[in-house]
Amino acid sequence: MSAASTPVEIDYPESDGQPMGETDVHIEWIIRLRDMLKWRYREQNTYVAANLLVYYEEGNPRKFIVPDVFVITDCDPHLRRVYKIWEEPSPPQVVFEITSRGSQREDTVFKPRVFDTIGVQEYFLYDPTSDYLDPPLRGFRKADDDFCVLEPDADGWLISETLGLKLRLESCSLVLQDLATGETLLTEGEFERRQREFEHRQREIERAAREAAEEELARLRERLRQSGQDV
Predict the structure, then answer these.
(1) Which of 51, 74, 91, 174 has the fewest CB atoms found within 10 Å of its own CB?
(2) Are 68 and 51 in contact (CB under 8 A)?
(3) What is the DSSP letter of 5?
């Protein structure tokens, strides 16, 4: 085989050299959002990733984008070093961007162009500090050849048809709920903490019920004793 026909192995870097987020607030929300979605899809064939390089043009390692968080249904959830669209069943279907001062223009101008090019179905922008987006939560869905702005419903929810979720802000915090069940999404840690709190409350209720029953039994015995009856 001649040197000219020898295939060249192309390197697709695993990092773009940029930090995950601009501040602790943004980093925390990226991680929390990823963890909420991973916990929701823990028993499903769905891939959730955060801050992962997505390459969208085979043979060109300069063509990549790094969504803060993205979801792909019907996709093996195994861990990846990078995501190459041509090797996967689908491009990112839904993307979430946690907007900061440094990412505002990228999130609102550059990334949507790439999302349009690679076939993203929906994307959402969330500004946890409410400093760089007005409103601080926005949603977009692909319709025909362009993204259309999602309008909130009467209760202020934005609807993700792709994921069956609704999103809104409560005290500036992003809340996600399952459309079918109305359940609020939690991380695994939050779910386990609520379970412990629930179990603790149940034990307290049972203890209080036992104590009340024992006190009532003691009062009954005392009344019987006073009336001269054997207990």
Answers:
(1) 74
(2) yes
(3) G
For 105-140, write each residue's pLDDT tens digit: 999 999 999 999 999 999 999 999 999 999 999 999
Query: Which parts of the chain are beta strand (E)?
Result: 46-50, 54-55, 64-65, 69-73, 83-84, 94-98, 122-126, 137-143, 146-149, 158-160, 165-170, 173-178
Tell the residue number behind the tokens 């034990």, with chain if given.
203
The topology under which CATH files domain 10-184 is tt1808, chain A (3.90.1570)
Helix (H) and strand (E) counts for the chain?
A: 4, 12
Q: What average pLDDT does range 143-166 have in this prediction?
A: 95
Residue 208: C-alpha distances to residues 76, 195, 211, 212 (Å)? 48, 20, 5, 6
| pTM of the predicted model as reported, rounded to 2 decimal places | 0.82
